[in-house]
Amino acid sequence: MRKNKVSLTQLGRGIRVAAFFAGGGGLDLGFDQVGFDVVYATDIDKLCVETLNANSGKGLASTPRVVHADITKLRRSDLPTEIDFVIGGPPCQSFSASGRRAGGAPGTLDLRGTLFEAYCRVLTWLQPKGFLFENVRGILATNGGRDWEEIRSAFGRLGYSTTYRVLDALDYGAPQQRERLFLVGHRSDSPFLFPEPLYGPDSVERTPHVTAGEALRGIVETEDLGPLYLRNGKYAHLLPLVPHGGNYLFFTAKRGYPDPIFAYRSRFSDFLYKANPNTPIKTIIARPGKYTGPFHWDNRCFSVGEYKRLQGFPDDYQFAGTRDDAIRQIGNSVSPKIAHVLARAIAQQVFGRDCGVRLLPEIKVLSFDKRKGDKAKRTRALHEEVRQAGRGVAETFRFANYESITEPHSLPNGKPNTTVTVDRNQATIVVRVDASRKIFAKIRLEIDKGHAGLFDDKGSSAVKLDVVVYGESEFSVQTMWNAVDDWVIRSSNFHSLFELYGHFTEPHPVFRVVEYKAYSKHPIAEFAKHCADFSNCSKHLPRDHLTKLFGLAFKKSSFLDLVETLRGYRFDIRCIETNIAMPPDKYMVAYPFALPTRKQMNFSVRREKQQRPLRERNVPVEV
C-alpha cells in the first residue's frame, strides 16, 4: 500500500457530510475518523439523538447539528446547505432475515421499506456530489428482486450512477460476520470500486480475521458481570453444555446428542449460541431474547463494553439509555470498522484525495459465500458421520400413561377429556371433546426416534401414535391437535409440536401423518385432513384454489371470509391481508396442524386497500 501523503484523520478535511437514519452513529464515526466533517445528523429515535449529542466533539471529532426528527416530515428549509456527501440507510427490518423467518420479508410493502423515498427527497434538495446507502443483504431478493430494481431506478432518476456490493465487516477488521449491502451513488462516468478486504483469505496479505478473544483483550470492565450470567429459565442449564462456537443444534439427534431436546433447524441459529474466543462471532443483533446469542464463552451475556468492541466502537464511545437501549443501538449500527474503510475509498474516488486504498476489481468475487458453502459441506459430513456411527438413535420419547385436561374446560362429569395409554413404542390418545359418543376423526402419526426426518423402510425406528377424537363440536379438531402437542411435551424433551415439524419456511419434520380419517360431516374435519398432507403446506397457491376446494363447504364465497373462518379454527392461513410479505394473488397453509391454544395468533384479516407498488408512485421532490 502506498504511504499516505496526509494522516488518515485529514483525508476528508473540508468534505461536509449529512447523516440520515444516523442511529447510534456507526457510519458517522467511520467517516469522522477519516476527517470528513459530519455537520448534520438526524434520527427519529430520541435515545440515538442523545447518543450522538453525547459523543459530539468527543467520540466524534465532528460537532454535528443533531436533530430529532422524522425524515418524512423534514422540509427543505430544515436542512443545512453546501452538503458534499450524504450517508445513511433506512431501517432494514423490512428486508432482514428475521423478517423472512417471521413470514417473508415485506420489503417495500412495509412502511419502513419506503423510507428510502424520503432519502431520495433530501438528496434532491441537497444535491450532494455523492451518497452512501446501506442496508441488509436481503433487500436484493425481496419481492423477487423488484424492490431493489425500483430503488436503484429511483436513484437513477435523480441523476446518480450507482454501484453496489455486499461486503462483510469481518473482512475489514470487525471480529464479527456481518454482511451488508453498500451502494454508492456518484456522478462520475467511471464505476465506483469498493475497497479490497484487509483481513481474511480475500486480503492481499491473507491477514487472519480478528477473533473475538483478540477484540476483547485488555478490556477494562465498568459493568457488574454478575447479573449477566444465565442462571434461571427453561434453558439456562443448557448453556454451559454448549461447546464454544456451538448452539442449540448441539442438543439434536443429527449432532449425536443421546437424548435430543430440539429438532434440527427448529430454532434460529443464534439460539443458545456461544462465542468461541479463537474465532470471529456470528452477527450480533439489536434485540436479543433471553436465550439469543452470542453468549460469552464464560456462559454469560456480553457486557455493553464487550458489545462495543465486537461491533468496532471505541471504548470511550457513549450510548444513551439502559443496557438494553445501548445493545439495541450497537446492534443496529454499521460497524465503524467497515465505515472507516469505505470512507477512505469514497474520499479517494469521489473527492480525488490521495488515500492509497487498494480497490476491488469489478469482476472479483469475494469468498464469503463459498466459505459458507464449505461450512455447509462440513456440517453434512458431520451428520453422515453421526448416522454411520449409529449415534443419536435414542429413545427420545419416554412414555407414560396419564390423563389430562387439554382445554380450559372438562367434561360435564368433571373428568379429564384426554387419556393416554402406552404399549411399548405405541401410544393411544383418546380425546373426548363433549359428551357425544360420535367419533369426530381418527389419526395415526409416526414419529422418528432417531435421525430427524429419516424413517427407515420398515418404519421400525418410528413411534406410533394413534389419536381418536370423540365429539360433535366444530372445535374438536383443535382439541385433537392440542392433545398431540400436550403429549409431545409430556413424553419427550421437545417443547412443542413445532419442534417436530420445524419452521414453515424450511420444515424438517420428524413425524408424518400416515392416516387421517374424518368421521364428522363438518367441513373443518375435511380441511384438517387436507392440511395433514404435508405437500399442501408451506407453498404458495392461487387464492381461488382455496375457495374452489372449501368455499362451498363453508358457505363462504369470499376468499377473505373463508380465510378468517379457517384462522378462527386456529389454522395458520396466510395471505397478503394477514402477512404483508405474501404475494397479492397467493395464499399458504403454514402448518399441517391447528396451532395450540397457548400460542398467540392474530385472527384478524386486514381488509384495507394495500399500498400500490413503488413503480406506480412518484417520489416527491419538493415540499
Alpha-carbon distance between the two ends: 47 Å
CATH superfamily of the largest domain: Vaccinia Virus protein VP39
**Hey, roughly how much beta strand do the residues contain?**
15-25%
Q: Tell me the strand order in the biggest sheet.
A: 3-2-1-4-5-7-6
List the helices and strands and how they pair.
Blueprint: E1 16-19, H1 26-33, E2 37-43, H2 46-55, E3 65-68, E4 85-88, H3 97-103, H4 116-126, E5 130-136, H5 146-157, E6 161-168, E7 179-186, H6 212-216, E8 295-296, E9 300-301, H7 304-311, H8 323-332, H9 336-349, H10 368-389, E10 402-404, E11 418-423, E12 426-432, E13 439-448, E14 462-470, H11 476-491, H12 497-501, E15 511-518, H13 523-532, E16 541-542, H14 543-550, H15 559-568, E17 573-574, E18 586-589
Parallel strand pairs: 1-2, 1-4, 2-3, 4-5, 12-14
Antiparallel strand pairs: 5-7, 6-7, 8-9, 10-11, 11-12, 13-14, 13-15, 16-18, 17-18
Helix pairs in contact: 1-9, 7-8
Report on the structure:
The chain has 623 residues and is an alpha/beta fold. It folds into three domains: 8-216 and 314-363, 3-Layer(aba) Sandwich (Rossmann fold), CATH 3.40.50; 226-302, no CATH class; 402-589, no CATH class. The chain has 15 helices and 18 strands. The strands form four sheets. A seven-stranded mixed sheet has the order 3-2-1-4-5-7-6, with helices on both faces. A six-stranded mixed sheet has the order 10-11-12-14-13-15. It is globular and about 85 Å long.
